[in-house]
Amino acid sequence: MFPAFKEWQVIVEALGSGEQVLILRKGGIAEGLGGFDAAHAGRFWLFPTHFHAQREKTKPSAAKFGVSPSVDSTTTLTLHYFADIVRHRFIERWEDVAGLNTFHFWTETTIREKFDWSRPPGLHCMVIRVHRLHRPVTLPITPMMSGCKSWIDLPVSFDAQQASPVLDDDAFAARLKQLTLIFPPLS
User: Fold this and answer.
1) Are 45 and 86 a contacting pair, CB within 8 Å?
2) What is the pTM of this model?
């Protein structure tokens, strides 16, 4: 089994376009307060979810990523991307989180809600390098995939898939440099 990270479809598409390279996460409801853990996943699938309010909770500029699923999202799921964690850190100061505003597509209100929900207040920030599959993989949706949790396991190996980074080495290095100018290096 291979880890998959559940994220709103619009954010998965932003990550898959290379316009966003970070994930801010408090954890899923099923994980409880402060229950998020990224330590077990160096590489993971990006599992797009169809949260009903994601349009209202993302910036207007994210509308371009709000594509409709090409298959019935109640019975199947198509994977297009996997990612590697490049840097990870729990951010406890709101000012530091707010300084990342230009690097993601969530609204400030959405990020503030997530920040305040955690105990202690804060958010996990994962800088990731995304890879696009040359051929997407479609899986049947099973009951273990449902629920408000960040991580699930999928029976699809990364090694069995041909993929390419969505940003080449130079473009990705430039994005990391931009993040460093706004926010000190994450570790």
Assistant:
1) no
2) 0.88
